[in-house]
Design goal:
With 441 residues, the chain is mainly alpha-helical. It folds into 2 domains: 7-112, no CATH class; 124-405, no CATH class. Helix content is 66%, strand content 4%. The chain contains 17 helices and 3 strands. The chain has a 3-stranded antiparallel sheet with strand order 1-2-3, covered by helices on one side. α10 (229-260) crosses α15, α11 (276-293) crosses α14 and α15 (363-374) runs antiparallel to α16. 53% of the residues are buried.
Length: 441
């Protein structure tokens, strides 16, 4: 326990809380989860009156033991966002160990510094392969042939290499999205011009799935539902900019295809039970590969694949209800199942949730809308883009609703107000024990 009369001890606790919050926020955790975890750290060490404030780019923490004492405040800016679910899992475990008294302050500070200073746990080439398998999984899910799988694999891998190169040049993310969407479409144009037996629309859709901002949209909806409107607005703006970059890039490629006289319109596959196996397999491969590309622990890949297979299968089987209802029901199922799957895999639920919904992101709706607009059908094109936005909202709100239901079911013995406090996608679930000062010390 920290000595709340020692300024150096107080500084150490506040610094630890800030570093925990920085690692969580930079890896996609919601503002509510970040605030709760930072508060868990300060309260555990007796700083019961510490105030935490989280925005999209800034973490602030203040502490004042008595009203006559000058307050101590610390600020930390989050200037980078590189999703690493391995780091997020380690930080989540650190906070849980800290609350459970399995580590002390000095060990906790050493661990958080080690996590922050250690690079990614996998070689870069493996991430490129994971991107490729994600695209191939989407191609299988959409009913593509083995030739389409290969082309989608190569296209997705090349998009990742291009974006990594542009990131090294420090080009803004918006331009990386444009380049990724344009390259994916041009590869589809080349496949169409070669007269290979492929569906070019599936190639484009499979290649841009990794560019869609599924994590950002879930974070935005979670922040909006849990009382962080400023952070939610910033996340939504980031999602819109990322999606706008895809739209610009894909529309540019479609214009080139139209100029060359190549048809890249969507060719829907047959909707029957015979294709269900391909949908389930494709969803599982896509989600597991995405999780691998985000450095999720190896032990979590199998549960993620299973949850994604359920989501993809439900979306396909319920397609007669309409796209929105099918996706919404599947998303609720993901939220319900992910909580238990995450506990089994010993990872935060956020890792399972985000990865499992990747196969049902509205990539096909975005592409269909852009293709229609490129052909001059602006009305139906706009309807397609609005449908894509509605699907994304149904996904985000559905998985969060599933978490709202699933987590209280695991805490039936607790008070009602604790069960209704909202879902935690990262961080300890149980209330933090408030430790009192040891007057005898």
């Amino acid at each position: 326990m920290a000595d709340t009369d020692d300024p150096q001890q107080i500084h150490a606790v506040l610094d630890l809380a800030l570093r925990v919050g920085e690692m969580m926020l930079s890896n996609g955790a919601g503002a509510a989860d970040v605030t709760a975890s930072m508060s868990a750290v300060t309260r555990h060490f007796g700083l019961r009156s510490a105030v935490v404030d989280v925005t999209f780019t800034t973490l602030t923490i203040s502490y004042q033991e008595r009203w006559e004492d000058p307050p101590q405040s610390r600020v930390r800016h989050v200037t980078y966002r590189t999703i690493d679910y391995g780091d997020l899992t380690l930080v989540d475990k650190l906070v849980r160990d800290l609350v459970a008294d399995r580590v002390d302050l000095d060990e906790a500070r050493a661990r958080i510094l080690h996590i922050a200073s250690t690079g990614h746990g996998r070689p870069r080439w493996s991430i490129t392969l994971a991107y490729g398998f994600t695209g191939a999984g989407v191609a299988a899910l959409l009913g593509g042939t083995w030739v389409v799988w290969i082309i989608a694999f190569l296209a997705s891998a090349l998009v990742e290499v291009l974006q990594r190169w542009m990131e090294r040049l420090r080009l803004p993310f918006f331009y990386q999205q444009i380049a990724g969407g344009l390259l994916a479409t041009l590869i589809a144009v080349a496949a169409g011009a070669s007269h290979l037996p492929v569906s070019s629309s599936i190639v484009v859709t499979a290649s841009i799935i990794m560019l869609l901002a599924g994590l950002g949209f879930i974070g935005a909806v979670q922040d909006a539902l849990t009382g962080f409107p400023l952070t939610a607005t910033a996340r939504i703006l980031e999602v819109l900019i990322a999606t706008a970059g895809i739209i610009v890039g894909v529309s540019g490629g479609l214009s080139i295809a139209s100029w060359l006289g190549i048809d890249l319109m969507v060719q829907p596959g047959a909707s029957d039970l015979a294709r269900l196996a391909g949908v389930v397999l494709g969803g599982a491969v896509c989600a597991a590969a995405f999780a691998c590309s985000a450095y999720a622990p190896w032990r979590s890949l199998a549960p993620i694949a299973g949850v994604a297979a359920i989501a993809a299968g439900l979306t396909y089987l319920l397609s007669d209800l309409g796209r929105l209802w099918a996706v919404g029901i599947a998303a609720v199922a993901v939220g319900l199942v992910s909580f238990g799957a995450a506990a089994w895999a010993r990872v935060p639920p956020l890792v399972v949730v985000v990865s499992a919904i990747v196969p049902i992101l509205p990539g096909l709706s975005i592409y269909r809308g852009l293709a229609l607009m490129a052909e001059g059908d602006a009305y139906n094109g706009i309807v397609g883009l609005v449908t894509a936005a509605a699907v994304a909202l149904a996904l985000a709100s559905g998985v969060l609703f599933g978490e709202y239901v699933a987590q209280p079911l695991r805490r039936e013995a607790r008070k009602v107000e604790q069960r209704l406090a909202g879902p935690r996608l990262v961080g300890p679930l149980k209330p933090t024990r408030r430790r009192r000062r040891n007057n005898a010390a």
